């Protein structure tokens, strides 16, 4: 499985803070986003991501057991 | 020693943050306290809610601390960011920087708050009398015009 | 309310100074804490002694507060300056400024410390292991080369 | 009498924080400084002054009961 963390309004879109998706066929962040788009009919365009707590690109590899976080524009401070 | 870069749901203390960076080599400590403002763009905030990707946020704060060290080798810095429900005038973030000479302390401090608003995964939700909204972009270039994009709470 | 601009022989509190300027309209508080540094130009300070023309110093601090109001009408400021014998790392001065937006708070705060070093009648005497000296010019352009001019303590 | 306040190294020069000088013949800050120079053989050139807690010029009037402060370069902060 791949763990997906949802923050801020992403939580509302996906109905929770944590999702687990099957890692079958998933090799990159882009694959994760494509999966979420089709499975949840969710607009995640332009969202930033982190893999295992490091900011990631769409091409960043993702494998079994990794944690992918959906990072909307931050607004701390 | 306590963590120098931390996210907490407890109230922040200016006394404690200042103490983290005070040292014999320093002649100046500059602190920034980000407080909850009642009115933003004419709209009254009732309270704010801050959410963090806790573990990554602390890592990012530490990374900013290292950036500061590269740019101002004589500076010591500490940052605390609060999460949860914050009332008007509560401190959401406190940044403390000490340096031998004051100019650097002001500059490094301002650098840190700018970087926090860019790379630290923390989000705030405005709660007004008649609604609520996650704030999308702290640099105030954009804001989701009507609540969360793609649905979500109004 | 307590005095916003004061000179005191008691220890200064960052908590209290920050509280003086925190208010619902403010989103930012910037504090400057001037602390006693152990080494200046390679020479070790044992302690510092600050002396003030108390009544005039408070008037001058208030005048600086009015200058800030003219330049940054949305800013609120407070300043405490300590006198007497101060040990390494003790706070000699604390300046707190609150503004709706942070940029102004940094700028106004730095303005205040610059003005204090120009127009507020307060003096410091360095005490080293092997001597002591009144510091003549905080802007560090000149220093009396050998103790007080025209005689005085060595 | 005119009260003279001495701060920082001025205290050392004049041997105390407060002096009282006779106001006879004194009309301005300049007169006060001249008096101190001759009475104490003290170098007060370039020293700033305040009359009744306001910064003064050499030409500022001084009269009976006024307080004149000798203000060396300040070093607060």
From TrEMBL, chains A, D:
UniProt keyword annotation of Nucleotide-binding present: yes
UniProt GO molecular function: nucleotide binding
Biological process per Gene Ontology, one example term: Mo-molybdopterin cofactor biosynthetic process
Keyword tRNA processing included in the entry's annotation: no
Organism domain of life: Bacteria
Family per similarity comment: Belongs to the MoaD family.
Name this protein carries in UniProt: Molybdopterin synthase sulfur carrier subunit
Gene label: moaD
UniProtKB/TrEMBL annotation, chains B, C:
Enzyme superclass (EC): transferase
Record GO terms (molecular function): molybdopterin synthase activity
Gene3D superfamilies: Molybdopterin biosynthesis MoaE subunit
UniProt-listed Enzyme Commission number(s): 2.8.1.12
Keywords on record: Molybdenum cofactor biosynthesis, Transferase
Matches recorded under InterPro entries: MoaE_sf, Mopterin_biosynth_MoaE
Presence of keyword Transferase: yes
Function statement: Converts molybdopterin precursor Z into molybdopterin. This requires the incorporation of two sulfur atoms into precursor Z to generate a dithiolene group. The sulfur is provided by MoaD.
Protein name as annotated: Molybdopterin synthase catalytic subunit
Native organism: Marinococcus halophilus
Lineage: Bacteria, Bacillati, Bacillota, Bacilli, Bacillales
């Amino acid at each position: 499985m791949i763990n997906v963390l949802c923050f801020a309004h992403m939580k509302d879109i996906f109905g929770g803070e944590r999702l687990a998706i099957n890692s079958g066929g998933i090799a990159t962040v882009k694959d994760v986003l494509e999966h979420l788009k089709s499975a949840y009919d969710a607009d995640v365009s332009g969202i930033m991501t982190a893999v295992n707590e490091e900011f990631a690109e769409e091409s960043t590899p993702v494998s079994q057991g990794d944690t992918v976080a959906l990072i909307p524009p931050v607004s701390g401070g | 020693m306590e963590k120098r870069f931390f996210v907490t749901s407890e109230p922040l203390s200016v006394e404690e943050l200042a103490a983290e960076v005070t040292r014999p080599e320093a002649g100046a400590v500059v602190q920034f306290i980000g407080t909850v403002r009642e009115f933003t763009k004419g709209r009254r905030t009732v309270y704010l809610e801050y959410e963090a990707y806790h573990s990554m946020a602390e890592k990012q704060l530490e990374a900013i601390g290292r950036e500061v060290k590269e740019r101002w080798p004589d500076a010591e810095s500490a940052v605390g960011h609060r999460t949860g429900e914050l009332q008007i005038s509560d401190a959401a973030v406190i940044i403390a920087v000490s340096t031998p000479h004051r100019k650097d302390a002001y500059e490094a401090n301002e650098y840190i708050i700018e970087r926090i608003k860019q790379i630290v995964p923390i989000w705030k939700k405005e709660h007004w009398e008649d609604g609520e909204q996650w704030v999308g972009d702290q640099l105030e270039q954009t804001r989701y015009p009507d609540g969360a994009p793609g649905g979500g709470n109004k």
